[in-house]
Every structure is written in structure tokens, then in C-alpha cells.
Amino acid sequence: MTTIPRNVLLLGVLFASLACGAETTTPDPAAAPVDQVVVMAAREKVAKLEKEVKLAEQRFYDRYNQINTKRDYAVKCYNEADTGTRFKKQYCQPVFATKAQEEQARRAVAYLGSSSTPSTTSGAAASMHAGATTGIAGMAGGAGSGEAQESSASAAAGVTGAPAIMAVQGGQGDFQKNMIEATRKSPELMKLLNKYAELMKEYEEALRQANGN
């Protein structure tokens, strides 16, 4: 759908109101469809920019992985559905984080093969993806470590050994340094990063407008 400039729509409403005469107080029936068109156009713009942001992010990771020489610091993206839903979400994280989660899952399976309780089982499952990040900013800014993640990780510690989030946080600093260094040395990576930042800024602005903020 072609985005209709807002000023053109507003002028159309103004023209329709004047055509009805100054004395009438009847609401303009064309106003509702016009507002609907504006909202639909805004939402379509948000959806389009969201796709462009994801593509820009993926292009950055693809090029970074080509330049990066440390296998554990490569970035992989996955599409998985949360428990209880069929809707898949994408998350990206370095290889060393995935290895930590897989090791914790292996320990959890070994433990559950002998004995388990509902509380320890839920704790182990909740902490398996601790530290997964989304977005380049999140990747460089640190792994997820909110109170909920810390709580679930602590609950699983007695079952699976050191929780994955601890291993992720332990290696996060060196990973960030590696990504920053690779980006600084590569004009192409820097260009891709700047493009991602521009699209993200445009997306956030379009989202605010679509929400009426």
C-alpha cells in the first residue's frame, strides 16, 4: 500500500469540512476512513522497517563471522518457539553461549535420568537459554541477566552445576572486545553497523508515531 502523506489527508478533511458549509455541525463521514488509512499506512511502515532492521542485523553478523577468526566468538541466530506457543522468535548469540547451554542441558538430562522434582526440572529448563541476546546493541552490551534469569539460574545450579548464564557472563567481556576490534578494523563492518543504527532509529520513530506518541 502506498503511504499517503499526512498533510494531504488533512487537507482533504479540511476541504470536505468547508464544502459542507460553515453553519453545519454534522461530523464529516470521510474523517473516519481517512484516519483508518493513516493508521494502516503507519503500521505497514513499521512492519517494513522491522524487516529491514532484521536484515541489516543479519548482514552485519554474516560479515562479522567471515572476518572473525575465533570460532567460539562467531554469532549464530536461531528461530525457536517459546514453550506453549507456536510463534517462533529469533534470537542471536555467540557460539560459546550455545555450548554452555548445551552442556547444561546435557547435565540436566543426566540428572533427570536418575531423579527429579517439578521445582528442579522447571528451574533447569528456564535457565537453558539464559544469556541469549537480540540485536547488535544487546550483543555488544552484555548477555541478558535480569532478576528472573538470575533466579531461575540459581534454582538450577544445584541440579546442573554452574548455570549457563555464569559461563556466558564469564566470556562476554572477551567476546565484546573481539567484536569491537573486528568492527573497528573493517570499514565494511562499520558501514553495516551504521546502517543498522540508522534503520533502528527510523523504526523506533515510526513505532512511536504508529502508537500516537
Range of strand content: 5-15%
User: What does the main sheet amount to?
Assistant: 2 strands, antiparallel
Helix and strand sequence? HHEEHHHHHH
Percent of residues in helices:
55-70%
Low-confidence regions: 1-18, 119-131, 142-161
N- to C-terminal distance: 23 Å
Structural class: mainly alpha
Could you give the count of β-strands? 2
- Rg from alpha-carbon coordinates: 24 Å
Number of domains: 1
What is the topology, as strand order, of the major beta sheet?
A: 1-2
Tertiary shape: flat
How many individual helices? 8
Mean pLDDT: 72
Kindly describe this structure:
This protein has one domain (6-20, 28-210). The relative contact order is 0.12. It is flat. The protein is built from 8 helices and 2 strands. A hairpin with a 6-residue loop joins strand 1 and strand 2 (88-94). By secondary structure, the chain is mainly α.
What descriptors fit this protein?
213 residues; mainly alpha; two-stranded antiparallel sheet; 68% helix; disordered N terminus
Summarize the structure.
This protein has helices at residues 6-19, 31-67, 95-112, 118-127, 136-141, 147-160, 164-185, 187-210, and strands at residues 75-81, 88-94.
Q: Helices, strands, pairings?
A:
Blueprint: H1 6-19, H2 31-67, E1 75-81, E2 88-94, H3 95-112, H4 118-127, H5 136-141, H6 147-160, H7 164-185, H8 187-210
Antiparallel strand pairs: 1-2
